[in-house]
Queue: 3 jobs
Job 1
Amino acid sequence: MRPNADFWIQHLSLEKHIEGGSYRRSYTASLNISKDQLPPSFHGDRPVATSIYFLLEQQQFSAMHRIASDELWHFYFGDPLMVYEIDTNGKLIKHLLGNNPGNGEQFQCMVRAGSWFGSKVKVGGEYALVGCTVSPGFDFNDFELGDRDALLAMYPLHSDTIHMLTH
C-alpha cells in the first residue's frame, strides 16, 4: 500500500510553509559565505548550501516567489509535480518532476536565481514529495512572495499561471 501525504508529514516532521505545502530543513552547510563576497541581492552571510523536504498535496500550491539563489529540485515520491518558472527575461518554463522519463518527467530541475516560480501537483495526482537544495543557502531575508497584481502587470502573457499560483 502506498503511503499517503499524512504519513510523510508525520514521518519527516514537516511543518506548514509560508508559500504553501509542508516542509522541513534537512541540511545546512557548516561552511559560510560572508555578505561582502555575495552579490547585493543577498541580505547577510549565507551557508554555502541548504536543503529541505517539501510536500504539496493536490489541493495546495506553492505560491509564486523568488529568491536570490539557484534552487535545485529533486523528486522523491508520489505523483508528478509541475514547477512553473518565469525567468528574468519573462519566459515561462514548465519543469515536470517525477519518476517516469517516458512521460517527460525529470528527477531534477533547476530554477535560476531571480526567477519567479511556484508549483502544483499535476492534475489527477494526490501529492508530491520533493527536495529543494539552494546554493548559496536559503534565508527568508532573500525570499519575496509574489504579488498577483504586480506579476500580472509585469507578465500579462502568463496570467493563467499567475492566477493559479497566487492569492
Job 2
Amino acid sequence: MSKNKKIRHYNNDEICEAILLLALSAKAYEMLRRISILPLPHRVTLARKVKHFDCAPGLQPEFFEFIKLKLSISEDWERQCILMFDEMHISESYEFCKRLKTMYGANKKVQVVLLR
C-alpha cells in the first residue's frame, strides 16, 4: 500500500447504503467505485462488516423493530414503501449452514419477504 493513500473509515450508515447499492447492481457499484464518482468501500470491507450478522430462517422480530424505528424518524415521502411476499420453489435437499452451525431439513418451498 502506498504512503499517499488515505485510509477511509466508513460509518454504519455508509456501509448500509453501500450494501444496498451493491444489491441493486454489482456492475454499477464496481463502476462507481473504479472511476471514483462516489467514495465506496471495497466488497471485502462490506463482507468483513457483515460477517458476524446471523440471520436464521424464520420470522425476524428484530427486523420489524428496526423498520418501526426507522419509519418513526423518516420524512413522509421516505415512508412510502412496498412490502412484497412471494413463495419460491427450491431444490429439496438438506443443507448445513457453517456460520450458524445448523442443519436445515429438506424443504420444497421458501417464503420470501421484500421491503422496497
Job 3
Amino acid sequence: MGAAMRIFDATKKFPPEERYSLVDQVRRSSRAVSANVAEAWRKRQYPSHFASKLSDAESEAEEVRVWLEFALRCGYLQREIVEELDNAYDRIIAQLVLMRTRPTRWSTSP
C-alpha cells in the first residue's frame, strides 16, 4: 500500500497528456498489487487459490517496474525516485515469491 501511495504522489506531476495512459497504467498496476494480496489473504485456506492470487500480484508488481522505467526514460521521474520505487517493488516481489512457493505456511486450513 505504501509503495502504491508513493506512486500516486509521484504521478501527480506527470504532464496532462499522460493522465489516461502512463499515469493510469502505473497507478492501476500498483494498486492491483495490494488488491491481489488482499484477495489472496482471504483465500489462504485454499493453497492453490492463494498462490494464484499471489502470482497475479507478482505480475502486477513487475508491470509497475516497467511503467517506472518508461516514466524515467520520458523524463517524468528522477532516477533516485525510480530507483527507490524499483527497490521497493523488488522487495515486494521477493516476499510474494516466498509466499507463493510456500502457500501452506500461511494456510488457515486444519
